[in-house]
Design brief:
Largest sheet: 5 strands, mixed
Helix content: under 10%
Order of helices and strands: EEEEEEEEEE
Oligomer: single chain
Distance between the termini: 30 Å
Number of helices: 0
Structural class: mainly beta
Shape: globular
Amino acid sequence: GTEVDGRILTAISEFGTYGLFDDGGGAGGGAAIANLEFSNRAFAPIQGGGGSAHQGPGSPRPRIPGLVTTTDLSFDLGTSSTVRVEIYDRGGRLRRVLEPGRSMNGGRNVIRWDGRDDRNELVASGLYIFVISAGGEQAEKTVAVVNR
């Protein structure tokens, strides 16, 4: 798409459901947190450790080759910092503290999320916002979870 007067314009060639992701690329103070990227912008977490031949109600989803079940958030730190990573749902409710405050080195860092909340339960399908705090700065990035 193209940005014009604060609006994003793009051509849509077919009907469907579309999403707009804000990468938080606006101007900021220092460069403590940069280049936030997800290995998968949408993923489908799984229940339990894999499937069985019988799939009754409440059974774990079978492992499907090629199904993406986790996502990795990678980011650059300008200097070594204590990092906190929180995950919020679209309603603004804190769903998980993925990193409560761990010292990480400057350079590229990676944190994996398996789609679970603080109670170790799978979150519902929807958009989730990662909030990363380090060196007095904060950055956000959105990921989609797709469950059955």
